[in-house]
Specification:
- There is one protein chain.
- The chain has 168 residues and is α+β, with helices and mostly antiparallel strands.
- The two termini are 25 Å apart.
- The protein contains three helices and seven strands, in the order H-E-E-E-E-E-E-E-H-H.
- The strands form two sheets. The chain has a five-stranded antiparallel sheet. A two-stranded antiparallel sheet has the order 4-5.
- The relative contact order is 0.18.
- It is globular and about 45 Å long.
- Strand 4 and strand 5 form a beta hairpin.
- Bound molecules: nickel (II) ion.
- Nickel (II) ion binds next to helix 2.
């Protein structure tokens, strides 16, 4: 397993809608393991393949405090949604920034597992939020898209300052 580099906003590769996974081969299994290792190392509760430069409709998640409830979400879709509420959110591709945005409190997810087997999952709270966040990534969307242009601009400046300070 390996920790992969995570792309940061405004990398254009974060903005492309990803195509579905069609091959459930060894390469995919290794990619899934690497995504989990990268997510746990970050640390984060979710990571989409395109955040590591791999354009595939695949994300991994684990919202448990004990890091023992891994979820693989391939070619996901949301079947049902509840009412929305305001939650605080951040993203590994938008480091050091957090803000409040609307998310559905409950969702019903349909996706494939790492072996291509379909499953459905009723999620609420943090897991439901995470599912929506990762699904947005797979559609080329970031949580900052829900913010005002003023706030987005502030985050962009913060990130470019941080980039020049680190020399990369
Ligand atoms: Ni994210």
């Amino acid at each position: 397993m390996a920790v992969l580099p995570i792309l940061h906003h405004p990398d254009p590769r974060l903005r492309h809608k990803t195509p579905p996974v069609t091959q459930f081969d060894e390469t995919l299994q290794k990619l899934i393991d690497d995504l989990f290792e990268t997510m746990y190392a970050a640390p984060g509760v979710g990571l989409a393949a395109n955040q590591c430069g791999v354009p595939l409709r695949l994300a991994v998640m684990d919202c448990s405090e004990t890091h023992d409830q891994p979820i693989v979400m391939i070619n996901p879709e949301i079947l049902e949604r509840s009412e929305r509420h305001i939650v605080e959110e951040g993203c590994l591709s938008v480091p050091e920034a957090r803000d409040k945005i609307p998310r559905y409190h409950r969702v019903r997810l349909r996706a494939l597992d790492r072996h291509g087997k379909p499953y459905e999952l009723d999620a609420e709270g943090l897991l439901a939020q995470c599912i929506q966040h990762e699904l947005d990534h797979l559609d080329g969307k970031l949580y900052i898209d829900y913010l005002s242009s003023l706030k987005r601009e502030r985050i962009r400046k913060l990130l470019s300052r941080r980039k020049s300070a680190s020399g990369g």
